[in-house]
Design brief:
The complex is a heterodimer. Chain A is mainly α. Chain A has a single domain, classed as ABC transporter involved in vitamin B12 uptake, BtuC, CATH 1.10.3470. Helices cover 72% and strands 1% of the residues of chain A. The longest helix of chain A is centred in the C-terminal third of the chain and has 27 residues. Chain B is of the alpha/beta class. Helix content of chain B is 38%, strand content 23%. Chain B has a six-stranded mixed sheet with strand order 6-7-8-3-9-10, sandwiched between helices. In chain B, strands 2-1-4-5 form a four-stranded antiparallel sheet, with helices on one face. In chain B, strand 7, helix 7 and strand 8 form a beta-alpha-beta unit. In chain B, helix 3 packs across helix 5, helix 3 packs parallel to helix 6 and helix 5 crosses helix 6. At the A-B interface, helix 1, helix 8, helix 9 and helix 10 of A face helix 2, helix 4, helix 5 and helix 6 of B.
């Protein structure tokens, strides 16, 4: 490369440069700070909050919403949104349970059916958005409802496996129980798995062609075209990937609950969006990190757990949850504006 | 065989013939300017060639391959890159990343290699970075040094335009379409870019087609000038021929009062 030349900055550029430093120093840092503050407050107020047992419990409980939020992150950086993640998880878990315990298929086949259902839902989302030009939010609102319906049809509205219909006295496959409810020493396996998914998701987003294309598509679709990126193809595969990850999360959820049902995980799609946004990912696409999302889901988890320990009623928790989400994002917006002095967006 | 050739190219928006039965050709190694009054169909022509929109009829042949029906990324892979009248950058990406994205179509590492960070993946990353830096270094010191790591949104307007050209260069095109590259630049920057466009052809070997309103730029760089009006080619030739062509003057200034009204 040529010599690094130092040309003097103009006044505006100097200010912009400072603003840019501020912005990049914030981002995930802001959410991390809030997480630490929240944890500190609960550590003081709630007697049993800061015990390893409780902290591991938070990880166990929020592993599945966390994985869904990682899928959601990949979609949101493309400026899309996937309302069907939780429904897909419920369908996949239900299909796995029903196919294994009721239909009597072998264990690996049940896994394939579960994960495959996620690929199908993702492909349907991607197809409808790409070829029928249906807005992302509408397409996935459709699957959000339809997929739950299919899950209800598959399970007959009953928990699966349901005693009356099992063959050969089967319940959930052992492998599903292990990853969902087992632990490795003191650490819940489900939390470790979520950690691996987060690492893989981060790598996909930052290092692979698909991930970088996703960032580009969300950042500026026209510029993406000009850079040789197919916007339609990128979004299609991102939705397929989101479906696959959601399906995997659904199997873990079935394992954690020792049973699947068509309505499990309701509301988790909104929780996943909240985690993504709290984690500093731009809802309008083009910027975001999986690390931020992990912090986002931990904020939600710590908040709900801490309030539980403090004995705050569920009704109030819903209120405070909403307030915190809006407050964190408002803070982030304010920081960005202050940072760039109206320089962008 | 011309590098780019259109035959009977037509694009209609509602009742408006934005491009009307257009035949033109660009030879390899040429610098061709497309001029014409506002609404003459210049940008529509670029949009058609780059696959952003599809024509209603006609052919667009690039090295003999018909581009009609191909998606923008496929056309880019064949070797046509463009810039935009209104700069389109990834605002939140750094200068270097913006230039690196340009090579997206030319990379092959899949997810497995990326996650395992195989030597092949790292070598490819290194090559992408080097090529991006090479494209950026073409603009002297304006886009390199500390600027490599700055996000695009802090750049000055002229630098954004330069970065967009660098991104297009990084796609390793044969044909470069520049849509008003000097719009919004001051006279000094315009002069500098005029020289740079000539260097893009002479040193990098790109064939260049540009839309330009600044006649000093057009005079400075063009081997050939094509003037469009209402989507039709009304004149073609050297700068001098086109600039003195009566129909061109009419198109820009209106018809003589003698003929009625």
């Amino acid at each position: 490369m040529a010599e690094v030349a130092r040309i003097p900055l103009t006044e505006t550029e100097r200010r912009n440069r400072f603003a840019w430093l501020l912005t990049s120093a914030g981002g995930r840092g802001g959410a991390l700070l809030i997480l630490i503050l929240l944890a500190a407050v609960f550590a003081v107020l709630a007697p049993n909050f800061l015990t390893s047992r409780n902290l591991l419990n938070i990880l166990r409980q929020f592993a599945v919403p966390g994985i869904l939020a990682i899928a959601q992150t990949l979609v949101i950086v493309t400026a899309g949104i996937d309302l069907s993640v939780a429904a897909t998880a419920a369908l996949s878990g239900s299909l796995l349970a029903v196919s294994y315990a009721h239909w009597g298929v072998p264990e690996p086949v049940a896994w394939l059916i579960g994960l495959g259902s996620g690929l199908v839902v993702g492909a349907v989302n991607g197809f409808v958005i790409r070829y029928w030009r249906v807005p992302d939010i509408i397409a996935t609102l459709g699957t959000f409802s339809a997929v739950r319906g299919v899950a209800l049809l598959v399970t007959g509205g009953l928990p699966a496996p349901s005693f009356a219909r099992v063959v050969e006295g089967r319940s959930l496959p052992e492998s599903v129980n292990t990853v969902g409810a087992g632990s490795l020493g003191p650490i819940p396996i489900i939390a470790l798995v979520a950690g691996v998914v987060a690492l893989a998701g981060g790598l996909v987003l930052r290092r692979t062609k698909l991930g970088r294309a996703a960032m580009a598509v969300g950042g500026n679709p026209v510029a993406a075209h000009a850079s040789g990126i197919s916007v339609g193809r990128t979004k299609f595969w991102i939705y397929v990937l989101s479906g696959l990850i959601s399906a995997f999360a659904g199997i873990l959820l079935a394992g954690r609950l020792s049973s699947a049902n068509a309505l499990m995980g309701e509301g988790m799609e909104l929780q996943s969006i909240a985690a993504v946004v709290v984690g500093g990912t731009n809802l309008f696409g083009g910027e975001g990190t999986v690390g931020g999302t992990v912090i986002g889901i931990l904020i939600i988890g710590v908040l709900s757990n801490g309030l539980n320990i403090l004995g705050v009623a569920e009704f109030w928790q819903r209120v405070s949850n909403g307030l915190i989400i809006v407050a964190v994002v408002a803070l982030d917006q304010w920081r960005r504006r202050a940072g760039t002095r109206g320089g962008r967006l | 065989m011309p590098l780019l050739e259109t035959q009977g190219l037509t694009k209609v928006f509602g009742g408006l013939h934005a491009i009307d039965d257009l035949d033109l050709h660009i030879e390899e190694g040429e610098i061709v300017s497309v001029i014409g009054p506002n609404g003459a169909g210049k940008t529509t022509f670029f949009n058609l060639v780059s696959g952003m929109i599809q024509p209603d009829s006609g052919k667009i042949l690039f090295e003999g391959i018909d581009l009609v029906g191909l998606a923008p990324h496929q056309i880019l892979e064949l070797g046509i890159a463009r810039t935009f009248q209104n700069v389109r950058l990834f605002q939140n990406m750094t200068v270097l990343e913006n230039a690196m994205v340009g090579q997206h179509a030319r990379t092959r590492s899949g997810p497995i290699r990326a996650i395992l960070r195989t030597p092949g993946f790292r070598a490819e990353e290194e090559a992408i970075r080097r090529k991006a830096e090479e494209a950026l270094a073409f603009f002297g010191t304006r886009l390199i040094g500390y600027r490599l790591e700055q996000p695009a949104f802090v750049l000055s307007y002229a630098n954004r335009r330069r970065l967009e050209i660098a991104r297009a260069m990084a796609t390793e095109p044969k044909l470069l379409l520049l849509d008003e590259p000097t719009a919004g630049m001051n006279p000094r920057e315009t002069l500098e870019l005029t020289e740079l466009i000539a260097r893009l052809r002479d040193e990098k070997g790109f064939t260049i087609c540009l839309i330009e309103h600044d006649m000093r730029v057009v005079r400075g760089v063009s081997d050939r000038v094509i003037c469009l009006d209402y989507g039709r080619k009304i004149a073609e030739g050297t700068y001098h021929e086109v600039a003195t062509n009566e129909r061109v003057i009419e198109a820009y200034l209106g018809t003589k009062a003698v003929e009625g009204v």
